[in-house]
Design brief:
By secondary structure, the chain is of the alpha/beta class. It is built from 16 helices and 12 strands. Strand 1, helix 1 and strand 2 form a beta-alpha-beta unit. Helix 2 packs across helix 3 and helix 4 crosses helix 5. The longest helix is centred in the N-terminal third of the chain and has 23 residues. The two termini are about 30 Å apart.
């Protein structure tokens, strides 16, 4: 089980500015947990949403457009994602364009909070901050916390002082792309997950009883982020078709998906919930499609993770990188799903649990404080 970060007050408190983006739960979740840890040590933290830096208050429009792109035309997202992978040098012109549009608001935030350190949990803001830092327009040191396992070129910038990764493999890629310092303190997940152990017998039995799960039932916890994006209905049906696993789908805030799955036989569906620690305890395996926050929470608890039908772009990349790192399995088709689930819940369970929990080797808050001179 990963160690719960200790929160002792530092001798000299610092001021930190954290810039997230309300583009799904992952960026905000990491930002809030970093804020909680820093504030627990007596530091002063200002948390802002990068979408608020977009002029004419169209940030929410961009968020909605991105959501519907993933749902309706994921191939266009895959194409744009891959463009930057194939041509990383194009990130510099993008940073210039973003700085022209959102830079004034970002600089106002910096001037108002007067931070000792700035942390971005969103790649496009990292480009703006890195550009300003590289040009000498920003004196404050900047860190980027990369929430994805796969490090896309837009996550990195040579002007960023420190890239923080969820795994040493991710940190190595950030170091290669940026040419700068990178380290891997591990995912930023709340303490309530770090104190959970999926192998706990009594707690697991209580969690299963809470959700009406029979002792001999093999439950697949199926997640698709806060937006409920991807081929979830197909995955639900594929799990049922194995004949020996029962899907329990968490649909996030996608109410229409929840209603649809609730009409399908052989499993259960639920909407947004705060009971995720108990759900992770109750399940036998997590099946996910994006490599997002819930995936990191599963790693913390020691629940084995399987990637299946990943969404375009970062979903596909995260599935491949997590498999390569040995922290998750990747089922590439319906024919092989049952076998992969059997491996994850059987002979490879302990190996996957150990590899996932080993990711929590440090504390991002400690690295941020160090960068800020504390």
């Amino acid at each position: 089980m990963p160690a719960v970060p200790k929160e002792s007050a530092d001798a000299r408190p610092l001021k930190a500015l954290i810039v997230s983006a309300s583009m799904g739960a992952g960026h905000d979740g990491a930002a809030r947990e970093l804020r909680r840890r820093l504030q627990g040590r007596g530091h002063e933290v200002t948390l802002v949403d990068y979408l608020d830096a977009v002029p004419l208050r169209i940030g929410p429009v961009l968020r909605s457009a991105y959501k519907w792109q993933l749902r309706l035309v994921p191939s266009t997202y895959e194409a744009s994602y891959q463009t930057w992978v194939d041509h990383p040098s194009r990130a510099q012109p993008l940073a210039t364009a973003l700085a022209a549009v959102t830079g004034p608001a970002v600089r106002r935030w910096v001037a108002a909070s007067r931070p000792d350190v700035i942390v971005s949990t969103y790649p496009l803001c990292s480009l703006v901050l890195g550009r300003d830092r590289q040009r000498g327009d920003l004196a404050t040191p900047v860190a980027t916390f990369v929430t994805d396992f796969a490090v896309h070129p837009l996550w990195t910038h040579p002007g960023v002082d420190l890239h923080l990764g969820v795994h040493p493999q991710a940190a190595a890629e950030a170091r290669r792309l940026s040419g700068g310092e990178a380290t891997a303190p591990g995912p930023l997940v709340p303490e309530r997950f770090l104190s959970v152990d999926a192998a706990q017998g009594a707690a697991r039995a209580q969690a299963r009883a809470r959700f009406g799960i029979a002792e001999d039932q093999r439950v697949v916890l199926l997640v698709a982020g806060s937006w409920g994006v991807g081929q979830i209905a197909e995955t639900f049906a594929d799990v049922v078709a194995t004949g020996r696993y029962t899907p329990l789908a968490v649909c996030g805030r996608n109410e229409s998906l929840c209603r649809k799955l609730s009409t399908m036989a052989g499993g259960r569906a639920m909407g947004w919930t705060e009971a995720m620690p108990d759900l992770l305890l109750a399940a036998d395996v997590l099946v996910q499609n994006a490599g997002g926050l819930t995936c990191m929470e599963a790693f913390a608890t020691g629940l084995p993770v399987v990637s299946y039908r990943p969404i375009a772009g970062h979903g596909l990349a995260n599935a491949s990188e997590m498999e390569r790192a040995g922290v998750a399995l990747y089922a590439r088709d319906a024919a092989g799903l049952a076998t992969i689930l059997d491996q994850a819940t059987g002979p490879k369970r302990e190996q996957l649990a150990a590899a996932g929990q080993a990711m929590f080797a440090g504390d991002a808050a400690t690295e941020v404080a160090r960068l800020g001179g504390r």
